[in-house]
Design goal:
Strand order of the largest sheet: 1-9-8-7-3-4-5-6-2
Number of domains: 2
Radius of gyration: 18 Å
Structural class: alpha+beta
Distance between the termini: 58 Å
Largest sheet: 9 strands, mixed
């Protein structure tokens, strides 16, 4: 059976190619780990686009034909499984534009983060969250104070641990704000050793300034309308149980770094 994808991320068929196997099957996602260590995801079109995702209208049909351990091969514009293939067109090229954020965006993000879930509540208040949330909040503060970020790698549970989500938001925002993130040498390579392939893949692409659409929309809105930033922040915070809030916290940390670097006074 042949499928044609709605669209595919910029990494699919480029750095994300070669042999791989199915490692996870979920309601709206099928995860494939490539021999290179990267993770490619087949997702329902209800989910936003990311550099490592292929969006499909027919994911339900694929669900019935795959099982963990199945082998696949990914080429430049097609994926092959023994029971089906998926083709996609190359996504349009995007020109990277360095942003000049507004100072007001800090207050807007903080206001939204105070209503979020996960580590952001521990970050902005003295209330006691879960053990992991408190740990992530402490390490996020250390990152804001100049640590190299390694202590956040793999910190937490699930497919994308909270510490990794913070790093994805932070690295993606730093790249698009023209900031040197200050992480340790070999940081991205270490991610593939200490955390899962899905998180490590997101960290890799974030370090290149490529992130999922909902996160990108927040970063792009830092330089514009605060009402638009609010809407985009709330949309991002709907991702996962706390992943969206954790990514938003990472954006906030990058924004703090930006204004500290240019000498603005931050309350």
């Amino acid at each position: 059976m042949d499928f044609v994808a709605e669209t595919a991320g910029r990494g699919v068929g480029n750095i994300l190619r070669g042999a791989g196997q199915v490692i996870g099957i979920y309601d709206q996602v099928v995860n494939i780990e490539l021999a290179t260590g990267f993770c490619l995801s087949l997702v329902s079109k209800k989910i936003d686009l990311a550099p490592n995702r292929i969006l499909l209208a027919g994911l339900d049909c694929i669900h019935r034909q795959v099982k963990p351990g199945d082998m696949v091969r990914v080429g430049s514009h097609q994926l092959w499984h023994t029971r089906f293939s998926i083709a996609w067109a190359a996504p349009p090229s995007q020109e990277s534009i360095e942003l000049t954020p507004l100072l007001a965006s800090l207050g807007t993000l903080e206001k939204e983060l105070r209503t979020g879930t996960g580590a952001c509540r521990s970050y902005f208040s003295d209330s006691v969250g879960s053990f992991i949330d408190n740990q992530v909040a402490v390490e996020a503060k250390n990152l804001a104070a100049g640590s190299d970020g390694e202590s956040l790698l793999g910190l937490g549970a699930g497919l994308t641990p909270a510490g990794d989500d913070v790093l994805v938001g932070y690295l993606g925002a730093c790249n698009q704000l023209g900031l040197e993130p200050g992480v340790a040498n070999g940081f991205v390579g270490k991610a593939f050793l200490v955390t899962g392939s899905l998180s490590a893949t997101a960290i890799y692409f974030a370090s290149q300034g490529q992130v999922q659409e909902r996160l990108s929309a927040v970063i792009q809105a830092l330089s514009g309308s605060q009402s638009e930033l609010t809407i985009n922040a709330r949309t991002l915070m709907q991702v996962g149980s706390s992943s969206g809030s954790d990514m938003l916290l990472g954006v906030y940390l990058a924004l703090v770094k930006y204004f500290n670097q240019i000498g603005s006074e931050i309350a």
